[in-house]
Each structure stands twice: as C-alpha cells, then as structure tokens.
Amino acid sequence: MRKILLSVALASALVAAQDSAPLSPHFSNLQALTSGGSNGESYWSPDGKRIIFQSTRDGHTCDQQYVMNADGSNQHLVSTGKGVTTCGYFTSDNKHIIYASTHEGGDSCPAPPDRSKGYVWSVYDTFDIYLATDEGKIIKKLTDTKGYDAEATVNAKTKKVIYTSTAGGDLDLWTMNEDGGGKKQITHSEGYDGGAVFSHDGKKMVWRAYHPDTPEKMATYRSLLKENLTQPMKMELFVANADGSEAKQITQYGCASFAPTFTPDDKKILFASNKHKCDSSLFELYLVNTDGSNVEQMTSFGKFTSFPEFSPDGKKLIFSSSFQSKGNYEFNIFSVDWKK
Question: How much is the pTM?
C-alpha cells in the first residue's frame, strides 16, 4: 500500500488556540493536531502514543483512515484508498487496527445519500469490518454478511469489539472478539442503535439510538432502511451493561446527541449534541452523569464539535471541530488537557 506522508513541517505548524477559546474549566491547552482537510473521528492507541482518524484529503473524495503520532506528526494513510471507510480503531495489542470499508463493493466512493428524503445518512450494505496491521496490510475480513457492518470500537481490557450491524434485519449492536469470532447481537429494539463504546473497565456501554415511537415514524424508518438510509437528527443516548442488559435512556432532548465516551473514571459521559440549537449543524461537547443528571456544556465554539475520546492515561482529550476552520468543509482534530 502506498504510504502517504504529510510534510515534516506539519509538526512545527501545530497551533495553540487563543487563551480566550470558549472552553470549560475542565479543558486547557487547546492545540490543533491537523491543519486542513476534513478530519473526523479520531481514537487513541491503547499505549497513548498514536491516533487513528478518518479524513478526506490527498485527492480522495471520501473518508479514508490515517494514523499519526499523538503530537500530530507522521500522518499517513493506512486504509486501501478505495471506497469509503469509517470508524478506525486500534486493537488491544497496539499493532493492529480495525475499520469499516466499502472497497470490496467498488473502488469509487459510493453514491451520496438522496437528500430529497431530508437529511439522511447512508448505511451502505457494502460496509464490512476489516482487521489490518497498523501500517495498513489487511489481515482478515471480520464481517461477511450482506448488509451494513460498521461503527466498531474496541475495549483494550476485555478485547471485545462492539459494532452496528444489520445482520439481524435491523440496525442493532453486536459484539465480537478481535479476530471476528463469538459474534452476538446485544440490542433488539427496532430502530437505529450505533456509535457504541465500552466503559474503560469493560462493564458498561453507552451508545446513540433512534427508536421510533409512533406508527408513522416507524413506517418512515423502515422505508428508509430498505434504501440503506437512516435519519440521524433525533438521537438519544442509552447506557447498559456490556452485554446489553439493563438498558436505560439517559437523554431526552429530542435533538441529535451522539459520539458518547466515558470519562477516565467511568463516572460520567462526554458527548456531542445540538441540544442548544436543535436540528442545526452546530454541535458542542457536553458532560453528564451516567444516569443523565447534571448535564454541563463543555465547549462554546458555535461550530461543529464532536467525536471526543480520552487518552488511555486520562490526561488528554481529542475531538474534531470546525473551530478556526478556513472553509465550509474543514474540520480539524484538536487536543486538550483534561482536568476533573
């Protein structure tokens, strides 16, 4: 695989944002790790030395997977460069990655969703999850059923993978081992369940969901799913045991809340939401107790800000934001120091 290296000068181009950046007292030392392009979800390696992230850049017209050092240096491609990819994550050994890709369904980016049906996401049925070395050599295809398999994350302690799949006929959460074995469906309510992560101790999980609550909404959901589409703008957060039992809804905002992650002590959840301006593309980060109480706004950029994840040592946080962007489709990955 061709390895794309960004300029060595990028490391010296990391910028600290202004002292007046609109951040919670929990955050300090805001720095940009990328500069230019559309950089989305980013996740730490278990040893905290590297970050995997998805980005549209280098002539690609849809997202591919990249790896960089924790300081933003040595950014390079680790996916095939074909199709579209999403949700890259390191496995527990620090030497492999998993990510979802449509490349076996075609070299080109899949057709964009039909926005005549409103703001919808594509859940491409050519998405499957792959295991690769940390430099991009694919080792194994982990899912192989017809339909959507994506949004995988890994718990480094239990070595379990949680992901979203239509293998059971609906958009449900499944778990499997890092080698693809032991697949098990763990949510069963009709509607979308996705974007799940385990707590650090592996005992709990949190995810975003849309469970239609009227016959009309359910009919729309089913109709869109037949076309590999779903509506993302009415998502709520749920918490459950790691096996899916004792599930509880913890937000009731009627807006889009997603990208949840547990704080280092597993006592709170950091997530992105447009609850302050529902139905808009303006997302901020919020902190909430695991029972849904004491919600606290953490950023006030007035932009799109999402996909937070804490470093393994609990000292840093990374997230994607259009803060200080120079164009409509520029999103960069930022890091901050975390204080309880």
Answer: 0.92
